[in-house]
Automatic annotation (TrEMBL):
Annotated GO MF terms: pyrroloquinoline-quinone synthase activity
Pfam family, one: TENA_THI-4
Name used for this protein in its record: Pyrroloquinoline-quinone synthase
Organism (species): Salipiger bermudensis (strain DSM 26914 / JCM 13377 / KCTC 12554 / HTCC2601)
Source organism, top-level taxon: Bacteria
């Protein structure tokens, strides 16, 4: 039976309440100040792969959109990450965070040392958005519904617990507090309007679950490689590599 807009929105929000990666122990460790400098660096390196792939994901989506209004509404997401003449963009802000934690931004931007599982998860998301229906692609982006809370907690936790944290190094998260609500308001309404059968609602819900799995699996990879049991796979970043200077260790 097809759910009302209110019922279906509640269903989507429940997915976030149960499956969003703010529940992952790595985030509790990070925000609580319990990560070592190298664990923070590993997170920054691997999360960059996700950040730099988002514009490619959005470009793949837009390449299939025939409606100019939808393309016009969506393209700001690319600008938010890649930047414009008046906005440096999220990718550059993330590289400023990388520099603040002692990493060479060029090394991070090269994506060398990214965990294999991170690559598999993020690349799978890009393919999902490229190949699935537009409804599923938009629904997968709705993890943004839950992002403002984790950004606020991250800003508070990092400022409280880490010397590198300041307005400059955390500017990515502060800007997402302003950018994400705009994106998610549009995306949520679009999904509610277009998921007009039970089959489509089920597909949209599964797409959102898929995206939460993408985010969760990235943290599982970090935990296994750099926390417990700390088995770094061949080719992945090793502590001491890619530092901005010899004293940054």
């Amino acid at each position: 039976m097809t759910q009302t807009h209110a019922e279906f929105e509640a269903r989507l929000r429940q997915i976030g309440a149960e499956r969003y990666h703010d529940l992952h122990p790595f985030h509790h460790k990070l925000h609580g100040g319990d990560c070592t400098p190298d664990q923070v660096r590993a997170w920054v390196i691997n999360r960059y792969y996700y950040q730099h792939s988002i514009p490619m994901k959005d470009a793949a989506f837009m390449s299939r959109v025939e409606d100019p209004d939808l393309r016009r509404a969506w393209r700001s997401r690319i600008e938010d990450h890649d930047g414009t003449e008046t906005n440096e963009g999220g990718i550059r802000r993330w590289l400023r965070l990388a520099e603040a934690v002692g990493l060479d931004p060029d090394y991070v931007a090269s994506c060398e040392g990214v965990l294999p599982a991170t690559k598999f998860a993020v690349d799978a998301y890009v393919r999902f958005v490229r190949d699935k229906t537009l409804l599923e692609a938009v629904a997968a982006s709705l993890t943004e519904l839950f992002a403002p809370k984790i950004h606020a907690n991250r800003i508070e936790g990092l400022l409280k617990n880490y010397e590198f944290a300041d307005d400059s190094s955390l500017s990515y998260f502060r800007n997402r507090l302003k950018e994400a609500p705009k994106d998610v308001a549009f995306g949520l309404q679009w999904v509610l309007d277009h998921a007009d059968t039970q089959e489509k609602q089920d597909a949209a819900a599964k797409a959102l679950i898929f995206k939460t799995d993408v985010l969760w699996s990235q943290l599982d990879a970090l935990w296994g490689a750099y926390v417990d049991p700390a088995r770094i796979p061949p080719g992945a970043w090793q502590p001491g590599e890619g530092l901005a200077n010899a004293q940054a260790a």
